[in-house]
Amino acid sequence: MIELEGVPELIDPVMVAAFEGWNDAGDAASAAVGHLDREWKGEVFAALDAEDYYDFQVNRPTVFLENGVRKITWPTTRLSVVRVGDTDGKGRTRDLVLVRGIEPSMRWRSFCNELLGFAHELGVEMVVVLGSLLGDTPHTRPVPVSGVTSDADLARRLDLEESRYEGPTGIVGILQEACTHAGIPAVSLWAAVPHYVSQPPNPKASLALLNRLEDLLDVRIPLGELTEDARAWQLGVDQLAAEDSEVAEYVQSLEEARDTADLPEASGEAIAREFERYLRRRDPQAGPGVATEGGLADGRDGSYLRDAASGRTRYPRSAPKEPREPRPSDAPEGPEAGGAGPAGKPDDGPDDTGTGTGTEH
Fold first, then answer.
1. What is the pLDDT of residues 97-119, one digit of tens each?
2. CA 130/CA 287 separation, integer angstroms
3. Could you say which of 4, 192, 210, 357 would form a disulfide bridge with 135 (CB–CB 3.0 to 4.6 Å)?
């Protein structure tokens, strides 16, 4: 039994997690959770025992000096709580449980069970795991972000993709599956990072994940300097690409493929839906959110709501969506293929062929 002392009763808590390593191309996912922790001044209330889950020859501890005294920081996973005030412009508050750490080296089932133990004790209503992968997507276009779940009913309620992936998996896929077996609604959000500029950081991908998280949870996320960092990142990559004719030509081919794939979405209905979403994000009285660049172009609102009469969580109904079959990828998979994150297509990430979107675990 996990005893949590000093943690207040939480309001509509949602657990948001990200793990460095194979599921974190460009450090986009872990940086997004780190941004939430900094902006909302998260208070750490628990840390998993590093001895139980990490190989210190793979993830080495670090030594630092504090007031002349040598100290050691051990690789681990930490949990913090943040209270989000005035999420909808009407004084409503809610709490987030932030999980940030490194993909464990061993005992993954015990690792997930321990996290779910905290989720149970805190009354967590949903788990959202962030991930990022390397994909064939141009840096000049909005970052593709896919929301997936292995729960068919949840996919219909929140207008998400239902995972059909089969193959090697990482801790994101294992944790999502553990949530499903434990009866906790779980969603993973995946951002596609251009494979030709995979070095961290990638603030544009982090920004895209946070924009999608805003829509999913129906909260406003303070972005700080992240929008400007994303713009500066793109300008920097533009300059690098301009200096190499082969890279510039390759980026142009990716742009053409992406624009062709997105062409069917440029309908009057899609444009109207996106315009309504834009107004909602600018006007606090019209709904939650803040106006940002690089947001999703699909205009979907998959947030879940609190029923004032019953006090229970309810989900907006949407038309059932036909699940998309995964497409084979020619790129090698896994960190052993040389990628910092999921090289090509991860275990539970979107298909990275063409536009960088697809079916996830």
1. 999 999 999 999 999 999 999 99
2. 24
3. 192
